[in-house]
Amino acid sequence: MKLTDVLETTKREPHCGLCKIDFLGTGVCAAGKKHGFVAYWPEGRMELARALAENEVEPSEALIDIVNSCNMCGICDRQCYFITQRRPTKAQQALKDYVQTLKPNMIKHTPEDEIVKDLRSIVGKDWATNDPIIIASYLRSIIKQKSSGQYYVVMPNTTEEIVEIIKLANKHKIPYLPRGNGTFFGVVLQTLLAEPSSIEQGIVIDLWRMKDIDVDPESITATIGPGVTSFELQKAAKTHKLRANVAEAESCVCANAQNLGIITTWSNTYGWGTDNFIDAEFIDSTGAIQHLSDKDIPNPYASEQGLMSLSLIPSVIITKLTLKLHRIIEDEEPVFIPFTNLPDALDLAYNLARRNIGISLAVLSRKYLTEFISPTHEIAEDFNYIAEKYLKLNYVVDVICDKYGKKIIEEMAEITFGQTMLKSLILGSSKLASMKDSSILKMIAEEEDPLKAVFAGPMLKHFEKGLAASPRELVKDFDEDLRDFFEKLYSKPELTDSIWLHSFRILPCRMERKHMWMYRGGYMPGDKKTILKVVDALEKPAQQYHIDGAFGFLSYLERGKLAHLEYDYYYDHTDPDARKRVNKAIVESWRQQFAIPGVTPLEFICSKGLHRKEHIIYPLPAGLSEEELGHFEELIETLFGGEDTW
Amino acid sequence: MVKYLSTEWAEQAKKKILTELDKAKDLKNMNASLLNVVQNVPPDNKTVYFYFKFVDGNLEELITGSDESIKQKNAEFTITGDYTTFVKISDGTTSSAMALLKGRVKLAGNKMKALTITKPIDTFNACIKKIETEY
Ligand SMILES: Cc1cc2nc3c(=O)[nH]c(=O)nc-3n(C[C@H](O)[C@H](O)[C@H](O)COP(=O)(O)OP(=O)(O)OC[C@H]3O[C@@H](n4cnc5c(N)ncnc54)[C@H](O)[C@@H]3O)c2cc1C
Ligand code: SF4
Question: Is the ipTM, as predicted for this complex, more than 0.85?
């Protein structure tokens, strides 16, 4: 197999990073676990297969080691197939075949220079490199594609080692940048934000080895290292019947804390940012170690607001974080309230938020619901079509609450469904997709209120029966050799358990299986009028530039006083024209969002100290005047050049 | 070829600004004074100051040097960073706005006003970039 044979797949590698964690109980890539560098993980092999095919890097000795370290065990195929339906072993096979074609004189030796020598003396010889092949595996997930800088990658294991690395970088006057699991970079590096968020030369500090987790059930807290992912922390918390307020499974919690303050559907009860942070150990740019609990440190929450406050690079490296955990209540249950219109969904959700009902509370779009729970993108597309055309199901208010909360919701909402229906939708999604344009769906659509008919009326039983939900039915169109595995997997209760899925968040990555996306949205007052204005400010530029834009989810803070909206732009990042259009839509939507009083766009929430909302969101910003928006355009031009250069 | 941040360089910068930039079109009649604090300047890692002041788009003053009196000039904005970063701004590898965004320089002063002068400052930098400079 040639590298070019898999190029269509490798070019689309989203660097979702899920295959670096054991989220399916398969174990993880043994080579990745042993060697650490991204190059040894499936995502890195994908990137290398692409970079070699596109002549962005030349083979080096490390390539031989990377290729030989894979025994084609197929764990990555199962993991990646679950998310993207891709098979990384194909890229690995192409790499193996490519290596066979190399003559010895084509394989470059990388001499050790002074910097890598010093890095190795800090972290040990196996954990620092200047090998171009290993560096190339970090392309598009911290290093910009086609960057010509001189790079090093280092994998420290202690805070003290990071201090030494920073001092070394300062001595040589070269930049450094920490990397958790690279998923933020994977998204933004495809956009005009690539330059301000990536490293143009210098030392990539890959924090993956720093995986200490210490749960203290007495104080209901956990202290973690910067390589700990949300999934790993959640798993540790769960063994004590506790829950962490963490985002998608694969993100490193310290990275997420620093980067976005950890935005979740649980914010209704658990809050956001420093609502959950108790102590942090971090290292400043001089290499000094500081703690949140130290009296004499500069204000770690300090942050600026407004147009000039955009900052996508962390000012400190968090090396330890102590977070609050939360008790899991025995009678927690999911309740879903389906809606056709967003304003109606917002009315109910806001009412619940104001009354503090719902431990987890969100308005979820049809797009998220169908994409997350469908095992393939094709099924998701059909499901999405059916939900819109026949079921008139466009939004759900998605709640996890106790039994008292459930009673109140059932009093407030006419139509609800719960765990049983969700399980049927997950396991029956493939059958549902096959029912596209069927007579039963046509009958449902003819009902006066299709939502009511399906979820609370006479059609409920027929609908559920029609789904014929079962793991075997679900996997029948999967690659043949993987069917048995997936049938067993989907038979595990957690894979269809709404509460588990909300806590462990292994599904959101599915949104990048077909195309790349870019997070948009931000924080705003929780009233419906403002939210709808913001949706409009995001939707219109997407339409203007022919980008597929879709509402993602909305969650609340402070009893509905504030809301966080995620709205996404989906586009083909392998198409230069689509990339240009998405950039234009991003800039235009900033303009429109900034004009709305109280709104802070998501990008302007990034890397803001330790994310104390009182510093970042308050005082609620006044909408910018036309004159100020004019200056904003000048700033954009200064930063990124004219539209033609994006 | 003149040495970056030397008196000769400052003289050439002044001349270029005065002859090549239009105070309304390019400099937007800006009123601002800015002190660049350039740290670790080779060969002996000294700090060098680079100060300029515009009144209604007219360049009133542009000076460089290590003299502490420059620092005392009460500039409206102060940009502090390493010599290597200022070289990149000066040779056009990056812009001062991008260096700020990436945290490579620190800005002190009113951020909202800074927003209004980003464009003229960029034009100013693009103009002095054309000086044949030895770094
Ligand atoms: C599919 C998907 C869904 C998402 N959903 C959510 C969501 O619901 N809620 C939410 O909050 N976010 C969400 N995100 C964003 C993501 O969680 C954050 O960007 C998170 O920071 C990514 O973690 P990471 O380990 O991959 O970080 P990386 O991409 O490695 O790094 C992100 C940033 O943090 C910096 N950084 C890394 N480690 C440290 C450290 N120890 N100290 C200081 N800085 C550090 C990096 O330099 C970089 O600037 C989502 C992302 C994806 C891809
Ligand atoms: S898409 Fe995700 S799971 Fe698949 S190889 Fe890439 S990082 Fe791993």
Answer: yes
